[in-house]
Amino acid sequence: MALKGDAVREKILELLQEKTDGYISGEEVSQLFSISRAAVSKHVAVLRGQGHEIEAVTRKGYRLLRKAELLTEEIVRQGLNTKIFGKRGVHYLPTVGSTNIEAMQLAFTDAPEGTLVVADEQTGGRGRQGRTWHSPAGCGLYVSVILRPDIAPNEAPIITLLTNVAAAEAVHEITGILPVCKWPNDVLINGCKVAGNLTEIFLSGDVVGHVVSGVGINVRPLPKKLVPDLRTAPCSLEEAAEKSISRVELLQAYLVRYEYWYLLVKEQGFAPLLTRWKELTDVVGKKLSVQVRGEKIQGTVTDVSTDGMLLLLGEGGVEHRLFSGDIL
Fold first, then answer.
1. Binding positions for biotin (predicted)?
2. Residue 48 annotated as binding?
């Protein structure tokens, strides 16, 4: 197998990940990739420099203790099982105002669909209606994806539900905990908010030019001074799962689930996605009060429409179609 540089390191890391029951020897690696033992040692040193924790034991070989937490393109793509998402550019920024703003700027310069902006910290993270999303360094996964869907403007709200499902399924895969999707954009564990997303749309005339979908997932507990006073209290994956969580593995799981649903929607329309979202939510059939632009609307949730609207049956049989709002 005549591989060089990054390709060799990617394969070595994959081998280490697969070897969950022990060590892999330097001799075995050298034979697999037709390189010297010294070259194996140098590649392992580079992987360590990227932040991967790799143990070396004489006469045993190498063992991966923990994958790197740096969310650089090289690390994110190592072992990433997607065709588009993350394969067309990963823009890693240690600190940024907002990943969505950075992604929107890239989209205006014709960055391809599936391009990512990912950061360790956001100083101006945003939620719906201009709310602040607290994004301290190392505590969460903050990522935005550029999309160029062939959809009508009135269908764009479905992207929020798609992001919701992808985040929930990634959380489930990594933690083993099945969360709840709260309309329109939150992911909850035991009633606490662990993730939220923000969809921003650029219209070119009467068609969708591009969409930026940003998500924030709380991986580690927020510093107490940053815990906001919200209607829905925040929590983190590590608190809920009571174990260490890799942001790299979480991001990779998220991208795989996002690509799956995005491509399925392209092939089959919105119906399968809406069915899955309803499986992950507990809102259908509930009596709710929803705050919409200062007005409180009450009723029973009957369904979610094919374009992502919440259907609320109010007094006198009046049906309300809600694009967004805050459940009180």
1. 98-100, 122, 126-128, 193
2. no
Confirm whether residue 9 is marked as ligand binding: no
Q: Judge whether 17 is annotated as a binding position.
A: no
Known binding residue 138? Answer is no
The answer to the question of whether 37 is labelled as a binding residue is: no
Question: Which amino acid belongs to residue 238?
Answer: E
Query: Is 127 assigned to a binding site?
Result: yes
pLDDT of 230 strictly over 90 = no
Candidates 216, 234, 248, 223; CA nearest to 122 is 216
From the options 3.40.630.40, 1.10.10.60, 1.10.10.10, 3.40.50.10840, give the CATH code of 5-66. 1.10.10.10
Question: Could you tell me the two tokens for 81?
Answer: 């099982």
Q: Say whether pLDDT at 224 is over 80.
A: no
Between 78-82, 140-144, 306-310, the lowest mean confidence (pLDDT) is in: 306-310
- Residue 12 has φ and ψ, to the nearest 5°, of -60, -45
190 SS3 class? coil
30 is in an annotated binding site: no
| Domain extents in the chain | 5-66, 73-280, 287-327
